[in-house]
Every structure is written in structure tokens, then in C-alpha cells.
Amino acid sequence: MDIILTGDRPTGKLHLGHYVGSLKRRVEMQNSGKYKDIYIMIADAQALTDNADDINKVRSNIAEVALDYLACGLNPQKSTIYIQSQIPELCELSFYYMNLVTVSRLQRNPTVKTEIQMRNFHQSIPVGFFTYPISQAADITAFKANLVPVGEDQLPMIEQTREIVRSFNTLYQEVLVEPKAVLPENSTCSRLPGLDGAAKMSKSLGNCIYLSDSADEIKKKIQSMFTDPTHLRVQDPGHTENNPVFIYLDAFCRDEHFAAFLPAYQNLDELKAHYQRGGLGDMVVKRFLNEILQNELRPIRERREELAQDLGEIFQMLKIGSEKAQKVAAQTLDEVKTAMGINYFRHGFGD
Ligand code: TRP
Q1: What tens digit of pLDDT does each residue of 294-340 get?
Q2: Whose CA, among 4, 118, 181, 254, lies 20 to 30 Å from 139?
Q3: CA–CA dist 98, 100 (Å, integer)
Q4: Domain locations in the chain?
């Protein structure tokens, strides 16, 4: 049976991009009951690889991310939710995996390359940041996860993990499991654009709708969304492709939303056709999108507010999850050391 593992860096609250790109899917997988184990990791140690000077940001966002998880429907009875830094075995695994990866291979990792550019590290790349693909391989293999639900930007990370697993299993013994990435089914959901039309919804670009946003904030953000810059007057023909309002509709709108909020149309194709012909104003489309998103996010926000009343309980849940995860990682580490022949005091120096 399959074992799932995934995680998020606690550098901010989670937003709509995380929600359609991965949270929704995780909850469905969790509730399907089809998986042996599900591990959801708050990757605080990975977040520190480029935030060493801002521990407080990472610390404070651990609870925010945990609240976002539970509000979306992740359930600690069914999924193990834990904090990466509380599993020291991950460091030990990384230390041995480091010997299986070359500097040039890390330099060629496309995710690392883009992230280095985004952060303007130039020649001052922290070693911990540069090597985080190796620690991510430890995150995944410590739990023998074979399925890793992630956004497409993480594909090079999974590939790097697979290479480490193959090297380890060939050099020593078949202990580790090669994972596969699980991408969102709908390509629109893989990478939700920002409110401003930028390729990605991202905290650093300030173009996000957060799961914790109030109804009013959501409405204002939608009203000021970027649309089709050539659609100046209502009667002008408009473009629906590369238009974030329509991309969000692709991700969220279902036929029943028309009956409920915009009965003049049957489905999204009809609405798009009208917009393309001309005669349909942005405000109508934005109002419709607002209804849909309010409807989707209201229960999440309300649940989140309720859970935030008792942070003690959230930390207790994380503590229990971390203890459970630590035991599993310790077991794998033990197998790894045995496979490498370095469990000296257990097996003796002779063999
Ligand atoms: N790198 C992931 C991100 O930035 C977070 C992460 C850390 C992760 N370890 C992981 C994801 C292991 C999947 C599996 O979103």
C-alpha cells in the first residue's frame, strides 16, 4: 500500500495557490482511506536555509500553517502532521546522502537554480540552501514514501531524490524507496497565477488570497484583479486565456455555481464565449468569481478562527505527530546504517 509524504515551508500563511495546487488533493487522498500512511511535514528546517536571520518568521508561521492544514480538512487522526526540525534523524540521513551527490548535480537542479536567482544570492549562497535537495531526499525516504503530492516546481526535487535512492540501493542494499511525484490533475491548479497576472501566486510578490483572509479582503482583492488589458470597454471583445479571472474560474467554477450565482449562463464555456464576443463587463465576471470563492473559503476561514482559539491544542497535536514521525524515521535510519555497515556496536566491526 502506498505511503504519502508532503510538506510546506512555514514562511507565511497558506494561500489559494497552495489550496488548489495541493491541500485539496491531500484532503481527498486522506479521506479516501486508500493509503497506508500519510505524512504532512511543516518544513521549518528547510525554511531556515534562507531565513537564518529571521527565525521568528519561521517559528510563528508553524502554527499558521498547522491552522491552515486543519481548517482545510487535514485530520491528525488520519494524517501524521509534524515539524521537520523535531526529527534529528533527517539530519543524519542527509549527512550520508551528501556523499552520493556531486556539487555540479546540485548546480544543475532547476529548482535550486531559479530559487537562487529569485533570492539574489549570486555568489553568497548559504551551503544549507544549496544542499536542501539532499535534505528533502531525507524527508521523503525516512518515511519510505512512494508518493509525493507537490506542485510542478518540485519535480526536480523528486528526481534528485530518486537518483539518491538509486545510488544508495546500488551501493549498499535495497533499503530506500524511489518516490513518484503526484501532480494536481488539472493543469490550471498546478500553478495558479497571482492576482496581478504574475505566473505564480506568491507571498513575496504580494499577489495572494490567503485562506485566512476576511470576506471583505477577498472581495477587495478580486475587484482589483488584473484582467484582459485590451478589454477596455464592455462592448470590446475580451481574452479569456492568460486572464487570471478566467483562470481562477477554470480552477474553481462548477456548473452548479451558475444556477446559484449567475443563472443567465449554463456553464463556463457560455460565459467565456460571451466575454470573447464582447458585451460582458469584467465586474460581472469578478462578482461571480467572488461568490464562488466566498462560498469555498467561508467554511475554511470559520473553522480556522475556531481552531485559533486554542493554540495549545495545535502544539500538542504537532508534538504527538512529531513523536510518531520520529519513531518511523529512526527505524529507517537504523536500516540505512545497517545497510552501510556502520551500525558498529550492533553488528560488530568484523562484518
Ligand atoms: N520544498 C517544498 C516546498 O518548498 C517543501 C518540502 C520540504 C517538501 N520537504 C518536502 C515537499 C518533502 C515534499 C516532500 O514547497
Answers
A1: 999 999 999 999 999 999 999 999 999 999 999 999 999 999 999 99
A2: 118
A3: 5
A4: 2-191+311-347, 215-306
CA distance 140 to 154: 13
Return the axis-axis angle of helices 132-141 and 89-97, rounded to nearest 10°.
Answer: 120
Phi then psi for residue 145, to 5 deg, are: -70, 135
Query: What are the beta bridge partners of residue 5?
Result: 39
| 3-state SS record for 13-30 | CCEHHHHHHHHHHHHHHH
Pocket test for ligand 1, best of 44, 86, 157 (most atoms within 8 A of CB): 157
Cell of 259: 444556477
pTM beyond 0.90: the answer is yes
User: How many other C-beta atoms lie within 10 A of the C-beta of residue 166?
Assistant: 13
Kindly state which CATH superfamily the domain 2-191+311-347 is placed in.
Answer: HUPs (3.40.50.620)
Measured CA to CA, the distance from residue 271 to residue 57 in angstroms comes to 42
Indicate the burial class of 120 (C-beta count within 10 angstroms; 0-12, 13-18, 19 or more). exposed
Could you identify the residue written with the cell 514562511?
Answer: 11
Q: Could you tell me which CATH number the domain at 215-306 has?
A: 1.10.240.10
Q: Residue 43 CA: which ligand 1 atom is closest?
A: 7
